[in-house]
Amino acid sequence: MAQEQAILAGGCFWCTEAVFKDVIGVSSVESGYIGGHIANPTYKQVCGGDTGHAEAIRVTFDPDVVRYGDILDIFFATHDPTQLNRQGNDIGTQYRSAIFPADAAQEAEAREAIARNAGGWPGTIVTTIEPLSHWYPAEDYHQDYWEGEGRSNPYCIAVIPPKLQKLRKSFADRAKAAGASA
Questions:
Q1: Phi/psi of residue 19, each to 5°?
Q2: DSSP strand pairing (97-99 vs 128-129)
Q3: How far apart are CA 169 and CA 122, in angstroms?
Q4: Is residue 88 over pLDDT 90?
Q5: 107 by DSSP, 3-state: which?
Q6: Phi, psi of 58, rounded to the nearest 5 degrees
Q7: Of 12, 15, 47, 156, which is the active-site residue?
Q8: Which of 4, 27, 126, 142 is most open to solvent, judged by the fewest CB atoms within 10 Å of its CB?
Q9: Bridge partners, residue 60, by sequence
Q10: What is the C-alpha to C-alpha distance for residues 124 and 71, in angstroms, rounded to an integer?
């Protein structure tokens, strides 16, 4: 089984990770940091907004089951790509909407996905396409966050279930837990 990766930043990585862990064909989702100027950043440093990194996820998927374009369509449907450097109450460049393509084919598909999804939003999509740079996995306690302490975190309880509901409604054929409660 061939595997590909997509690196996406769409605000809080706890929230985007929870969505993509529920997509059929996705074998793993790792939260981390990308796009900044210091090596081995910590969560505290990234949250400070001075490192240039984005909170992001690295999605490993089987392209025979779910295409990169499908991954991008889910990405655009489950976060607000019209908000510059923010998602809801999370504000700063670390919460920007960005795609980090692995190659020219992914970059072309990212541009097509932006154009394809632009009509579904009342504002202009501000998602950036940024060069792939060094990936830094987030600290262990950020991985699989929703499955662990996220279900008792008020922020996650307010933000993640609506994203999962949108996934299950708009992409029912792609969701592992279709019909399940958030």
A1: -65, -50
A2: parallel
A3: 20
A4: no
A5: helix
A6: -110, 110
A7: 12
A8: 27
A9: 5, 28
A10: 20
Work out the angle at residue 95's Cα, subtended by the Cα atoms of residues 94 and 96, and round it to the nearest 5 degrees.
Answer: 95
User: What CATH number has the domain bearing residue 128?
Assistant: 3.30.1060.10
Q: Any residues with CB less than 8 A from the CB of 104 and at least 6 apart, and which?
A: none
Contacts of 172 (CB under 8 A, 6+ apart): 178
Known catalytic membership, residue 12: yes
SS3 138: coil
| Contact predicate 31/10, CB 8 Å | no
Instruction: Say what the pLDDT of residue 35 is.
Output: 97
For every residue of 120-136, DSSP letters joined together read GSSS----EE------E
Q: Do the domain assignments include residue 179? A: no
Task: Answer yes or no: pTM beyond 0.90.
Answer: yes
Q: What is the span of the domain harbouring residue 118?
A: 4-174
